[in-house]
């Protein structure tokens, strides 16, 4: 009898090994897009990161988690298409895309282009190592890279890994739109029509000159030193207002405008640093000299010259880009919807709420 029972148990084990294995896999998978699985652990990780960045009521947990899963499904569709179209999406390519943001962030810490280039190169290399070891808990992160990551997480209000993945999806999306979808640029008539309809919302342009003093570092002592230096220069200007241009050429650490006496030309307020724009907005009298104020770039002294309504010529490229981007995004939404309908998508997330 015992022998027969053992035979039966052995037979059951031989008959159902795949079912047991499939059940274990099923428990760990939140969705399957064609043959690409989205693991529950990855979804939970993204959800925990989101919860660490903003408070989510218990009643909204499943909704927020479902939206994250939708984004992951869309990303898998994009990545699968990118693979089929032989579009390269290496970490190195994403980091190259981020070098502009890295340069802008560290430009406030040095006015030396050679030094800035070295910082950008070092941070980029360390980011590549960091992403290669993203799941290694004992990996030691470079201090400058940590500063940049903290800046991104604060600015974007998401964790850096999610931000990195979003950049990757964005690059793939752009490539797919040009390769697989295509989108026609707007005509000049369409751009002019948009301008005439919205020009009252575009605000105005200002013509200003400025002197920029950049702190050597983010330390309190260096911030204070830069502020004091700017204040000393302003006192010289107030004693002799006509000296603004010569002092700008001599002391301003903005290489683009210093050689022109600090002249920034006509600028739209919306395209300027918000702290800079906020201070300039209050200035109305030609020749007016601002107090010393800080922006994201450093400490400024501004000489206000004039303002005017935004001209079509100054925003034509921006409007063309805006209309092209909106049209491309609309085409992309239709493409994603079609791909989702065509794809084999199975959702196993418990409590999933359709968007």
Write a brief caption for the model.
The protein has 355 residues and is of the alpha+beta class. 61% of the residues lie in helices and 12% in strands.
List the main descriptive attributes of the protein structure presented here:
355 residues; alpha+beta; Chitinase A, domain 3; 4-stranded antiparallel sheet; 3-stranded antiparallel sheet; 14 helices; 7 strands; globular
Report what the structure shows.
- The protein is built from 14 helices and seven strands.
- By secondary structure, it is of the alpha+beta class.
- It has a domain of 107 residues: Chitinase A, domain 3 (Roll).
- Helix 4 crosses helix 8.
- The chain is globular.
CATH architecture of the domain at 203-309: Roll
Mean pLDDT: 86
Number of strands: 7
What class, by secondary structure content? Answer: alpha+beta
List the SSEs and their pairings.
Layout: H1 2-15, H2 17-28, E1 29-33, E2 36-39, H3 40-53, H4 61-84, H5 91-106, H6 113-132, H7 143-156, H8 160-181, H9 188-198, E3 204-213, H10 220-239, H11 244-251, H12 255-258, E4 263-268, H13 274-281, E5 293-294, E6 299-309, H14 312-342, E7 345-347
Antiparallel strand pairs: 1-2, 1-7, 3-4, 3-6, 5-6
Helix pairs in contact: 3-4, 4-8, 5-6, 5-8, 9-14
